TrEMBL record:
Name of this chain's protein: YraN family protein
Gene3D superfamilies to which the protein is assigned, alphabetical: 3.40.1350.10
SUPFAM superfamilies: Restriction endonuclease-like
Family to which the UniProt record says this protein belongs: Belongs to the UPF0102 family.
Annotated source species: Candidatus Cyrtobacter comes
Top-level taxon: Bacteria
């Protein structure tokens, strides 16, 4: 039933390590990896300057399928991110965003602003 789960997990961890190395090489500071809350999990949380970035890391070879997060998954990620920001009272960031990093066959692709959350407080 669970055949392949361990190898998928190992591949996911390797993809996260590769993604973090890529981010560090590109000037990001890694704040958290596999951060979990009651709202959901965020693969990597990093900062660059005064911008906070929440990363979803994908290692699927099926690029198009892995690219799509459902609206529910996006909302869970957004709620977890907002919760993280609320806990980090000592830091001030000008902005935050949600990015994807794809690690496929040793190639890394970084997609900035992969999705947005709507401001439900708009008038």
């Amino acid at each position: 039933m669970l055949r392949g789960t361990c190898s998928n997990h190992s591949a996911g961890l390797k993809a996260e390590r590769d993604a973090c190395n890529f981010l560090i090489h590109n000037g990001f500071s890694i704040l958290k990896q596999r951060w979990r809350s009651g709202f959901g999990e965020i693969d990597v949380i990093a900062s660059k300057g005064l911008e906070l970035v929440f990363f979803e890391i994908k290692s699927s070879k099926n690029y198009k399928r892995s690219f799509l997060l459902t609206e529910r998954q996006k909302r869970r990620c957004a709620n977890a991110a907002l919760y993280f920001i609320s806990l980090d009272n000592n830091q001030c960031y000008d902005s935050f965003r949600f990015d994807y990093i794809f690690v496929i066959d040793g190639t890394i692709e970084h997609i900035q602003n992969a999705f947005y959350i709507e401001d439900n407080n708009k008038s």
